[in-house]
């Protein structure tokens, strides 16, 4: 039923765009209420959205006159497409897709942080990684080309002169949904998984894969926002009060997570099961939780340094300047 509703919502949004309507980034339901659509991914870096959804924080902040809907994504490219077309109004995404799209002229603004950490690099059981040089020639998988986890991994190895085939190196790169990484490692299709939590913890438990680059060792692991809250500049300009309420709800969720980690973990397990069909075990989530931090603050310097590396790795065509990408005025 939920999938049917999402399909109908997408068709309605597409029709509105083709008709030149709904250009402000928000829409109105048949009951006359304003509708806000929040996007996020089914991984632990995106728990603030799951908690806000479960606790009704967006509904509380935006009031009875607003209907809140949620849409989940497997990777940043489809999320950014949805933001650009008005299919979603705001949500959580990795900084990589936000920066890449901003650099090509997309109307996107980072308005808050959400989490840090959570990127873990694992080697398939039987694949020996005793030094950085051992990554050469291996097949690795990330959620998307130039995604946050991809840039972190390739930055770490580029310092040692090891690069992907995309830029003349020997590492073969595949992309796919993190929930499928364990099966791909077991089948031998990939040697290395660059996984966001909780999938790294799942892979460890289910496959015996070894962590070869920890979340606090991979490039930008402790400083870079692993997920950020974004919206469009157009929505900020036309609906600043709505954006403020979205941020206030997001801050409520982050506060709840830090004050109630056990309950937040239960919400995470439930939400991921509803979205992916996979029920995570409690010990897996607890392990993943140790590799994540939650904050609404956003580190502009870390984002610029990360983007400079994206450019050096040729994910970005032009040298980036993100002075206008971040709008933290709603955090005060």
UniProtKB/TrEMBL annotation:
GO terms for molecular function: ATPase-coupled transmembrane transporter activity. Keywords: Cell inner membrane, Cell membrane, Lipoprotein, Membrane, Palmitate, Signal, Transport. It holds the Pfam family NMT1_2. The keyword Cell inner membrane applies. Residues 1-19 form the signal peptide. InterPro entries: ABC_SsuA_sub-bd (IPR010067), NrtA/CpmA_ABC-bd_dom (IPR044527), Solute-binding_3/MltF_N (IPR001638). GO terms for cellular component: periplasmic space; plasma membrane. It comes from the Bacteria. Residues 35-260 form the Solute-binding protein family 3/N-terminal domain. Its main location: membrane. It is found in: Cell inner membrane; Periplasm. Belongs to the bacterial solute-binding protein SsuA/TauA family. This is ABC-type probable sulfate transporter, periplasmic binding protein. It comes from Mesobacillus selenatarsenatis (strain DSM 18680 / JCM 14380 / FERM P-15431 / SF-1).
């Amino acid at each position: 039923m939920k999938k049917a509703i999402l399909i109908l919502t997408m068709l309605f949004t597409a029709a509105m765009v083709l008709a030149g309507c709904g250009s402000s980034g928000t829409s109105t339901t048949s009951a006359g209420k304003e509708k806000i659509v929040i996007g996020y991914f089914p991984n632990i870096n995106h728990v603030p959205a799951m908690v806000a959804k479960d606790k009704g924080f967006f509904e509380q902040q935006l009031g009875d006159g607003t209907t809140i809907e949620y849409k989940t994504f497997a990777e940043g490219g489809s999320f950014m497409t949805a933001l650009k077309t008005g299919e979603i109004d705001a949500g959580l995404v990795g900084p990589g897709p936000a920066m890449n799209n901003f650099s090509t002229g997309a109307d996107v603004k980072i308005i808050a942080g959400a989490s840090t950490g959570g990127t873990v690099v694992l080697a398939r059981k039987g694949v020996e990684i005793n030094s950085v040089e051992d990554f050469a020639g291996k097949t690795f998988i990330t959620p998307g080309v130039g995604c946050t986890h991809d840039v972190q991994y390739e930055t770490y190895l580029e310092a040692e002169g090891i690069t992907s085939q995309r830029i003349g190196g020997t590492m073969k790169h595949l992309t796919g949904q993190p929930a499928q990484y364990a099966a791909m490692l077991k089948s031998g299709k990939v040697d290395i998984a660059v996984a966001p939590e909780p999938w790294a913890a799942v892979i460890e438990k289910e496959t015996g894969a070894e962590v070869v680059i920890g979340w606090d060792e991979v490039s930008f692991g402790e400083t870079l926002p692993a997920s950020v809250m974004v919206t469009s500049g157009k929505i900020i300009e036309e609906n600043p009060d709505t954006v403020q309420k979205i941020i206030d709800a997001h801050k409520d969720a982050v506060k709840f997570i830090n004050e109630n980690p056990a309950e937040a973990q239960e919400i995470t397990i439930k939400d991921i099961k509803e979205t992916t069909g996979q029920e995570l075990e409690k010990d897996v989530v607890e392990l993943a939780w140790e590799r994540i931090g939650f904050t609404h603050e956003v580190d502009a310097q870390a984002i610029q340094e990360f983007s400079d590396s994206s450019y050096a790795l040729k994910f970005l065509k032009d040298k980036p300047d993100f002075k206008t990408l971040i709008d933290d005025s709603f955090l005060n």
